[in-house]
Design brief:
Blueprint (H helix, E strand, L loop, with lengths): L8 H14 L6 H6 L8 E5 L5 E4 L9 E4 L14 H59 L3 H21 L1
Antiparallel strand pairs: 1-2, 1-3
Helix pairs in contact: 3-4
Length: 167
């Protein structure tokens, strides 16, 4: 049975540990006759890089410190099957979560598109400013009247400043 990802981690842990206690080899003929218990899988509690615990059926090794969990000492809870109302509530919660995720994805996609559009506009503005600056410098090389000199110098300084700031 696949459990929804939004269930509390303690519930998931107790479910995993209860399932782990049921794991292991089934008793053979001799074991049934003597009344001995079947072999059980070991569960290790490991500490991750940031101190976050996780559980494994194998010793942690170099990843972190391992401590074997004594399954007999654990207090486990038997989980009853969900009723129809609970199942509907879980379905509603899952649909709401999926809708939030889709909305977040749409917003991120829209932000990427908007960012790309702004980048294209900035590149186009820079290209246009450089073209105007080139045309202005061509005009200055060809010659101009004394009255026009101050206007051309001012425009060239403005275009240079804009290109340095935006491009």
């Amino acid at each position: 049975m696949r459990l929804p990802s939004f269930l509390p981690s303690t519930l998931l842990l107790s479910t995993a540990l209860a399932s782990a206690s049921a794991l292991g080899a089934a008793p053979t003929g001799d074991a049934r006759a003597t009344g001995s218990t079947p072999a059980r899988s070991a569960i290790y509690r490991c500490e991750g890089e940031r101190g976050i615990p996780w559980f494994s059926q194998f010793p942690c090794g170099a990843v972190g410190s391992a401590r074997r969990v004594d399954l007999d000492a654990l207090q486990t809870v038997r989980i009853v099957p969900l009723g129809a109302a609970e199942r509907r509530r879980l379905d509603v919660l899952q649909r709401e979560r999926q809708e939030r995720l889709r909305a977040r994805d749409r917003a991120q996609r829209q932000a990427r598109v908007e960012s790309a559009r702004r980048q294209r506009n900035r590149i186009e503005r820079c290209r246009n400013a450089r073209a105007r600056l080139d045309a202005l410098r061509d005009e200055r090389r060809k010659g101009y009247s004394v009255r026009r000199a101050a206007l051309l110098e001012r425009r060239e300084a403005e275009l240079d400043a804009r290109i340095r700031a935006d491009c």
